[in-house]
Amino acid sequence: MKSIPQASAALVTGASSGFGAAIARSLAKESRPVIGLARRSARLEQLREEIGVDLFHPVAVDVRDADAVAAALDGLPERFADIGILVNNAGLSKGFGPVQHAASADWQEMVETNINGVLNCTRAVLPRMLAAGYGHIVNLGSIAASYPYLGGNVYGATKAFVRQLSLNLRTDLDGTGLRVTCVEPGMAETEFALVRYDGDQDRARALYENLTPLSAEDVANAVVWCLAQPVHVNVNLIELMPTQQLFGLGFSGAAVPEKVRK
Ligand SMILES: NC(=O)c1ccc[n+]([C@@H]2O[C@H](COP(=O)([O-])OP(=O)(O)OC[C@H]3O[C@@H](n4cnc5c(N)ncnc54)[C@H](OP(=O)(O)O)[C@@H]3O)[C@@H](O)[C@H]2O)c1
Questions:
Q1: Each residue's pLDDT tens digit, 18-76
Q2: What φ, ψ does residue 10 adopt, rounded to 5°?
Q3: Is residue 199 part of a domain?
């Protein structure tokens, strides 16, 4: 089993915001070159200015477009071409209604991003890792894969896919030295709720009114810890949530706020 060389890059999808940006910052702080992938190029440019050109390379691509992902990785500068770490983090949730009121376009966007996007990036990176004989794939799942909540229908199902894919990948990769981890956070304050509620700030904020949510840095710490384990240790699954969160969307000592339920 080979360790991942320090000069080997980490491809972090969804690096323009939230967990992805925090993971990119943490890895770069350890002098790991990071390829930050997302659609919003201006955000990625900001991160490049902050982290520096030596350690951050932006790739403005939509994970739903398999050809674009593959082409972007084929055109990487030499310093970033050896990808030892893939963090499949890009993802979203759209809509909060019960299944009978859900919009099919929302379902489609979640399936294409959270499922196809993970598959596209994994397929693009795996041959490089297998040829190198080292690699670690960390997939961002969610506690929504395990605990149902009102309106979580297709989002939770896409994250159940991510968890099972992680376990299946790890099984298929037996003997290759590659590792696979699924990190499953609970409620974390990022742009996630804003995207879910189509930019409605009040509704997004109301979600976190009754508890101290996880921060993007809390989740980045978990990812970095998984990556830091010695090569003979594979962390399969990590679930973390706010102390005040009771599994699905339950809060300790309080009902789900009315503004969130609507
Ligand atoms: N926040 C939570 O409570 C929570 C809990 C559990 C799991 N998660 C999961 O954690 C991951 C990160 O979420 P977050 O909380 O950090 O949310 P966020 O702040 O909204 O960040 C999501 C990231 O995904 C990127 N993205 C979305 N669609 C994309 C696409 N088609 N192609 C490329 N990039 C795309 C976004 O970039 P662009 O818009 O620039 O493309 C953004 O960088 C997601 O998979 C989410 O499901 C979140």
A1: 999 999 999 999 999 999 999 999 999 999 999 999 999 999 999 999 999 999 999 99
A2: -110, 125
A3: yes
Percentage above 70 pLDDT, the chain: 95
Choose which residue among 23, 37, 39 to substitute to test ligand 1 binding: the one with the highest number of ligand atoms within 8 A of its C-beta: 39
Residues in the ligand 1 pocket, defined by CB under 6 Å: 13-20, 38-40, 43, 62-64, 89-92, 113, 117, 140, 142, 185, 187-188, 190-192, 195
Closest by alpha carbon to 210, among 247, 243, 244, 246? 244
User: Which one-letter DSSP state was computed for residue 84?
Assistant: E
pLDDT in tens, 172-219: 999 999 999 999 999 999 999 999 999 999 999 998 988 999 999 999
The region, left, alpha or beta by phi > 0 then psi within -120 to 50, assigned to residue 174 is beta
155 is an active site residue: yes
Nearest CA to ligand 1 atom 46: 91
Q: What's the CATH number where 233 sits?
A: 3.40.50.720
Residue 4 maps to a domain: no
Output the CA 91–ligand 1 centroid distance in Å.
4
Residue 238, in any domain of the structure: yes
Task: Examine residue 2 and state whether it is found in any structural domain, yes or no.
Answer: no
Q: Beta-carbon neighbour count of residue 25 at 10 Å?
A: 21
Q: Which domain holds residue 160?
A: 9-261
